[in-house]
Amino acid sequence: MRSDQRSAPVSYAVPSAIGGVRQGSSPYGGTVGQGRAAGPVLAGATIAMGLMAGLFFAFDVSVMPGLAAGDDRTYVTAMQHINSSIENGMFGLVFVGAFAATGVAAWLQHKAGRRQAALWAAGATVLYVVALMVTMGVNIPLNNELAAAGDPSQIHDFAGVRAKFEGTWVAANMLRTLLCTAGLAALSRSLVLHGRFSRLGR
Predict the structure, then answer these.
(1) What pLDDT sits at residue 196?
(2) Alpha helical stretches, state H, 59-114
(3) Do the Cβ atoms of 67 and 130 come closer than 8 Å?
(4) C-beta separation of 72 from 157 below 8 A
(5) What whole-number distance in Å separates Cα of residue 140 and Cα of residue 146?
(6) CA separation (Å) from 131 to 115, 170, 173, 176, 181?
(7) What predicted TM-score, i.e. pTM, was given to this entire model?
(8) How far is residue 45's CA from residue 62's CA, in Å, rounded to a whole number?
């Protein structure tokens, strides 16, 4: 190395970390990419939860009361068709997506250091998990029993088939509505907190 060569001043070097924070990282934890994704994921989770709450609520206030006013054959036949029709890709996407998006939203809020927003989103995740347990433990088995009754043209005791299904299914669906509505409220609160922290630059 020649004597006339000088090393660059320290101030010209690009630091790999400033104030103990690595480049591309947030001072509140996680990475910049995770911080940017937190808001959209939380908004998507809120929408999905709202769709599920609305679906269950629609059954509570219109579908089931409407069917209840009909005769046994109409009730059993209609519910068999409804249960078959709802098994489609769009419903599956929202049904599973609400769980996945809510869980990821809670994790991203936690990684971004937004503890309160993360706790509300985590609470919504728990509420939706309980709703899933009700669905898997009560509603789906009842739907399967109703389908197992066979083609309406072969059923002889419509009143008996309906009696085994209606009361329990309706009560379980009301519970799902309450759980998802509470989950929607929790996600809405998390969304408000997320916006508040974002305005503060956190």
Answers:
(1) 82
(2) 64-68, 72-85, 89-111
(3) no
(4) no
(5) 10
(6) 24, 14, 9, 5, 10
(7) 0.81
(8) 25
